[in-house]
Amino acid sequence: MTISANYPVIRPSLLLDFANTKQLDPRVTFSRASTGTYFDSNGVLQTAAAGVARFDHDPITGESKGLLIEEQRSNLLTYSEQFDNAAWVKSGSTVTANTATAPDGALTAEKLIETATNAVHRFEQFPTLPDNTACVSSIYVKAAERSFVYLEARTKAGTFPGAFFNLSAGSVGAISSGAEANITSVGNGWFRCSIGFNTATGGSSLYVGFQTATGSTTFGDRSYTGDGTSGIYLWGAQLEVGAFPTSYIPTVASQVTRSADTASMTGSNFSSWYRADEGTLYSEGQVETNRNYSGSFRHFFQLSPTSNVESIINIIINGFNVPQSQIKNANVNQSDLTSGSNTGTLLKFASAYKTNDFGFSTNGATVATDTSGLPAISPAIEQIRIGGVRDGNSGGQLNGTIKRLAFYPKRLSNTELQGITS
Question: Measured at the alpha carbon of residue 222, what is the angle toward residues 219 and 223, in degrees to the nearest 5?
Fold first, then answer.
């Protein structure tokens, strides 16, 4: 946290410094019923065993981003790294297996090579998807002789949402109607490209295609005469039901589900540092931007009873992509404050509470205040859910990383709230 003249004299009674320790405090209970992937400090994609927390890193800078918390997702594509398999239908192209080092450090990346014909050069798969559902497809791509890629989906309504990607510039090119697109560098010339779309309705199937191009960004102009040798490197294809991509889920002969991450602190592990009548919660972390979150709430943390009666303290990114602090007592809103915006960069939050005295600041912004209400004390707060919501409630996972989380057993002043979040 930033040290300044406005830094509080009082020390936090809880400090979880995930980014620096890269381990869980022994008081935290963590679970995930499947493996999960993350980037290590060397920018290599690693796999964590079931039940093992993931501490993610920026694959370019190696910066520790903290504890990764994600919702449950499934990769609906099979043979996600084996594009020479018959599950992938090739058009105007061939695939050479295991020709380059993949983002996970293994020699498993494959090369899509154009044929010497005037054709669309791509490959595709035909998964079954539900009607009227937000989906996102993604793939890791690296330039070889070709440096333009096209990702496309065919919806059940017969439309073709898609986008061009320029791997030389690391940028998104033209985007067709009905699509969202994003490109992220993961180092060593690799980019993760993704498109979001809605499946619509109807009887036709849906497919996802990946295509090389000579440089054209004109939709409908995707055919060209190949030379029989040029191509592009590909690895790690994924198709998910959801509005944004999550960490890579490898598959072979069948679809694979990554379970949700859950982290919490309960019982005496919680009560030893928590104060009910006043306090200040601090959190640092990051969630993805540039996506339609469809009104979903992403929790950095939630303090709550173990029952389903609403007595909560939240810091969330709301459905409008805005940081928000909520406090309820006996199912009645006591304070509901917003501050700043989610820019996709590191966010620092401080939410303070005391009877008739609430405050909330993000990244040093002017403190939003509320001077009427009670702390969340009925029923009693019994746990903190880190990056999620309490048992018995669906959704709400952060789908991002938490660097630090702290609790001060005092309602810090507004000046201090701005100071610690600057």
Answer: 150
